[in-house]
Amino acid sequence: MKTIIGGILFVLLQWPIMLFAQDRELNIRKAEQFYAEAKFDSAVESYQKVLRAGYHSSELYYNLGNSYFKKNELAPAILYFEKALKLNPGNENALFNLKLANSRIPDKIDALPLLFFVQWYIGLYNMFSVDYWAKISIVLFAFFAAFSLLYFLGKNIRLRKTGFYFGLFSLLLFASSLFLTVKKNASQQEQNQAIVFANAVTVKSAPNTNGVDLFVIHEGTKLYIIDKVGEWCEIKIANGSVGWIEKKTIQLI
User: Are 253 and 79 in contact (CB under 8 A)?
Assistant: First the structure.
C-alpha cells in the first residue's frame, strides 16, 4: 500500500514538470516551423514564451538571435548571440553569426591590443563551458587522488616518485581548472556586459544630463558596465573609452 501511495505521489510531483517539458517542446517546434516559413515575428514570440517559462540554453538563445537577425533587428540579435556564447563559448554557429551581425552595425570599434599571455588566458577561458570545466576538474582531482595513493602506498622508490611528480602535476592542473570553473560560473551570474538598444546614445562625462558630451555610440554596440549610480551606468567600450549613459538605453547580456 505504501508503495502504491509513494508511486502516486511521485507521479503527481512529476506531472507539472512533464507538462512544462511538453509545453516547452511544443513552443520550440512551433518556433522552428514559423522560422522555416519565414514568419519571424511568430518565431520570436514562440521562443520568448519558452524563455518566459524559465528555460534557458545556448541553442535557444542562438535560434532566437537568428530570428531577430532575419527581422533585421541587430541589437536583439547580437544580444542573444552573446547570451548563447556566454553559456557555451564553443557554439561556433553563434560566434559566426555574431561576427556577421557586428559587421552590420554603425560602430566599428577597434579593441585595445592585449598582451600575449592575456590572449592565451582568454582563449583558454573561453575554450569550454562552465559545466565542461567542472567535469575536467573532477577528472583531474581523480588523477590527483590516484597518484597520491600511488605515492603513499607504492612499494618501491620508482613508483613513489612517479606518484609524487604526477600527483603534483595533476594537482596544479586541477587547481587551474577549478579556478577557471569558479571564474566562469561567477561570470555567468554577474551581468556586467550589455548591448546598446537605442539608435544613438551620447556618452556623458558624469551621471546626469548636464555632463559633457564625450562620444556617441549606436545600436548593437557591446559595452562593459563599470559602475551604477541611480538610473545611470558608467561604461567602457572595447577601445578603452569610458563615460556615463542611462540604463534605459541598454540591455544586459
Answer: yes
The verdict on 33 and 86 lying in the same domain is yes
Question: What's the predicted TM-score (pTM) here?
Answer: 0.81
> Which is it for strands 250-252 and 193-196: parallel, antiparallel or unpaired?
antiparallel
Query: In the predicted model, is pLDDT for residue 7 greater than 80?
Result: no
Inter-CA distances, 126 with 21, 85, 232, 237, Å: 30, 9, 30, 20
Helices (H), 37-156: 40-52, 58-70, 74-87, 92-102, 116-125, 130-153
Counting the structural domains of the chain, the total is 3
Q: How many CA atoms lie within 13 A of 137 on its CB side?
A: 15
The boundaries of the domain holding residue 184 are: 116-189
Note whether residue 22 is domain-resident: yes
Looking at residue 51, which CATH number applies to its domain? 1.25.40.10
